[in-house]
Amino acid sequence: MTRRQTMNRRDFLRTTAAAGAVALAAQAHGAPPATDGGGGRPNILLLIGEQHNPRVMGAAGHPVVRTPNMDRLAGEGVYFPNAYSATPLCVPGRVAMLTGRFGHDTGATDNIYEDLVKDSPTLPRALREAGYRTCHVGKTHLATGARLGTPQGRQRYYDIGFDEDFATTGKNGAASDTGRCAYVTYLKQRGVHAKLKEDYERRIANRATALSECSPSVLDVEDYHDQWISRTATHWLQGVPADRPFYLSVNWAGPHALRDAPGRYATMYDPAAVDPPIDDPMEHAPAPVRRRRDDTLAKLPGDSWRGLRASYYGMLSLLDDGIGMMLDVLERRGVLDNTLIVYLADHGEMLCDHGCVYKTMMYEQSAAIPFIVRWPKRFRRGLVSRSTASHVDLAPTLLDAAGAGPLPVMHGHSLVPTLTAGVEHDRPVFCEYRTTRMIRRGQWKYVSDATWDLQQLFDLRADPNELNNLVDEHPTLVADFRRQADAWLARTGAPDAPPTA
Known about the structure:
Elements (H helix, E strand, L loop, with lengths): L2 H26 L14 E7 L18 H8 L2 E2 L2 E3 L5 H10 L3 H4 L16 H7 L3 E7 L11 H10 L3 E5 L2 H6 L5 H9 L2 H13 L1 H4 L14 H15 L6 E6 L11 H4 L20 H12 L6 H28 L6 E7 L18 H4 L3 E4 L8 E2 L3 E3 L3 H9 L13 H6 L7 E5 L2 E6 L2 E6 L6 E4 L15 H17 L10
Parallel strand pairs: 1-6, 1-7, 2-9, 3-10, 4-5, 4-6
Antiparallel strand pairs: 2-8, 7-8, 11-12, 12-13, 13-14
Helix pairs in contact: 11-14
């Protein structure tokens, strides 16, 4: 951490401690929190999918999946088809959204379960200080399951910035958790936790076949993780007082693996009718990328990709229906058009394209994310923006729209000029995972890793499926990208960044 960032953090903590003490004292004496009744500021509903391939959405032109509520948000708001995760992995992506900073600066570079943002300025904490009522529902991946539901766990979420939390582990964690996660408690009260645990243990017991395991959940739709999250968020929206604006962060666990769409969602898409994955012979790809493809294909025999994709589509439609539940309650309460709604994901999913599954890759299916913003009271309607967007732009944008001050250090930019006036920008967007770096600039995407035998350069305008690596054909462009990557790392606090000239 740089000296400048240490000083910012110290100043922020001093301010936060004073504000928190005043708020807690007021609550202890039964006094309502200070509020201006909203003052024209929007409510904020942040909707976060888990491992959502950005191409699998009606608004993105997908030929099979049905996502009418996501499509509605895009049609009534601004859709950014050129949006990217800061890091295509759960924890780093979520920390980047909370802080507006890249993982090499915050320390969130992998799925570590530490207090990564406990002492850092965060988006929800800044909104709470600006008078917002804040709540978290669902998964964050930022605390171990054993702590959820305990006084220690609640304090943890309050430190992040949430007045209330209904926090859960991820899908796999919920099946094995013996703690007090709100969802696990619900399952145990319903008497169905034991059968979920047994089912998940069976699914992951044989790692050789786990990738192709696609069968309906043993739970009814009502008890399924993402349905519980949607229902809990909807109930909170139904009852939240109107005395001040709210910020609700809803975090689903799907369509992340395991592939276990429940009930009617398990049969919503016929495996025989799903679209085929992108075939990539990888004749000019880095050796580690080819090895990953070969390892994956060895575990996905024949056309087992069909069931995998059909189950994924079903889980995504269940999530989309949850969005519809929330839009309905906001509409009934008369606050839909003064609620700033964002839908995005922590990262994507390869979904058998290029012969790979899961995340952490720099192909569009993994590194890119869906990103939609709707607030018709102020923002454009039906705009498909050519501008790039990133996780690190989320905090600057929401704080700007809410009239709140910026965090002391943010690596992103407010997208409000694009959202309000349609102003397009051509800023490069960056993504990282461990030693791999990606830059998207205009039509070009550059991927580098010091441990690879070969780097990658794609012309996304001519080659949107990233099949033709042009790195040997454009040495001047590659050198420019390398300089740009070094400058970005130095500017954003990377501890191992090369010195700038």
